[in-house]
Amino acid sequence: MRKSKFLMIPVLLWMALFLLIPMIIVVVISFMNRDTLGNVVFGFSLTGYKTFFDSLYLGIYWDTLVLSVVTTVICLLVSYPLAYYIANAAPKIQTWGLVLITIPFWINFLIRTYAWVLLLRTQGIVNSLLLHFGWIQDPVQMLYTKGAVLLGMVYNFIPFMVLPIYVALEQMDKRLLDAASDLGATRWKAFRHITLPQSKSGIMTGCVLVYVSTTGMFVVTDILGGAKSMMISNIIQSQYLGARNWPFGSALSVIFVITSLILILLFNRAMQSKADRVKEGSA
Amino acid sequence: MKKKSHPLLGIHSLLMMIFIYVPILLIIVYSFNNTRLSGDWKGFTFEWYTSLLKDRHVMEALTNSLTVAVISTIAATLLGTLAALSLRNLSRRWKGGMNGLMYLPVVIPDIIMGLSLLVLFNQMHIPLGKATVIIAHITFSMSYVYVVVTARLAGMGRQLEEAASDLGATGWKTFRYVTLPQISPGIISGALIAFTMSLDDFMVSFFVAGPSSTTLPIYIYGQVKRGISPEINALCTLLILVSVTLILLAQFFLNRGKGQKKHKTLPI
């Protein structure tokens, strides 16, 4: 049985070759330059990073951050009550609720995004209904707006938020709530001091998942936002597949990953200290 | 004592489910709508499904998707299971590192994975095509197989294996007759998840597919960018159906595995 340790070598080699080395190459290329044909030129250069500090790209980056944060917050606000409901429902509802939340996970996000084109376009279902009931006189432009992008993002990533929060709430020791109510705590107080802190890990996982997925998702902007709205992932994509400015695309990728990591760390820190304060307060 | 949830919570949850499912159901309904242009219901038809079958591009994309999914699933299932099995014999420090490495594809954004593989293939002068898509899919699918099989192994305990080797079974025999039967539900559900992931993947494939290796999601993306069409509704409906069936199957195998686990670990 000891020998089976060496069975891992092919897997390690695979992961090194197709996961680690490619990412290292991207970091290396981000410090290089390109020639007029778009080929990567060897030699150290900060051009890729300098280009990022162009006001155009900084603005797009800021927009991306805002969109991702707003998406995450909305997802959290609408998903928490749903996760809470499923976690506290009767076993039968719980099973079904869980199945219903898991299914969208496995429906391609391209398809889920496309569904909103059907709904939001000028001759689409929402406009037809509004016209039919006489609430509007002319079709409203809903597709290819920032609102449509936000809606598409929230729609796509709700399951990413519900599931981790559900798992955290489900694993919680429900006897704590009985104890709290025996000791005279109101339902709100019990929620605030027991349920919420206990579901912290789920909230954290959900927020990180939604945030990172939103930032990397160029398809939603592409399909629902039209050409006007751009996210940093759209720029990265076009630098690789269209403009062929790989050093710049790589620099953007590096910046994207590093800012995500920093935000996740800060968020982690904030959640941690808040939980500690709650603990100290109740002690 | 369990307090009933607030009625508003129930209403909110119901509305959320409607919000989540109405758009998806609309695609399905519209795929049977007997009109190309209008948003109104004009009667039931299978026309869009039959015209999919006649579309050369769709069929080519389907063939590509299935080829990639079958090959990458087989390889990812083997490698992922291998990784999960060998993890058990590692020292704690190596275990952490290995675990981190295997989880990496789940954690890093797809776009980063796609573009870094594109860069690698370019630097190695490997032309983009089905092979590059397969390699990419193996890399991320392997992680999902690994996660599922590891969970299964962790719930299993080693008593039966130890008993087998105490009774003189060779390493291979122990694996074949004791370990494998116990983890097979995990392997099957891991393989089903890998297959679905591969069939569904757009982001990574988009970067590493060549002109001759368009997969179904890439084809759908191209069409969707041009606007809506009833054929796309039909194609999306089919893809939804396949993914959901596969995942429910995977879930079924996972649960069956859990039932077995109880039986096998209880007597010891």
TrEMBL record, chain B:
Principal location listed in the UniProt entry: membrane
Domain of life: Bacteria
Keywords of this entry: Cell membrane, Membrane, Transmembrane, Transmembrane helix, Transport
Entry's localization field: Cell membrane
InterPro entries in UniProt: Bact_Polyamine_Transport, MetI-like, MetI-like_sf
Organism, scientific name: Paenibacillus dokdonensis
Alphabetical list of SUPFAM superfamilies matching this protein: MetI-like
Ranges of residues in domain ABC transmembrane type-1: 62-250
Name of the featured protein: ABC transporter permease
Family named by the database record: Belongs to the binding-protein-dependent transport system permease family. CysTW subfamily.
Segments traversing the membrane: 12-32, 66-88, 100-121, 133-154, 175-196, 202-222, 234-254
Membrane-protein topology: Multi-pass membrane protein
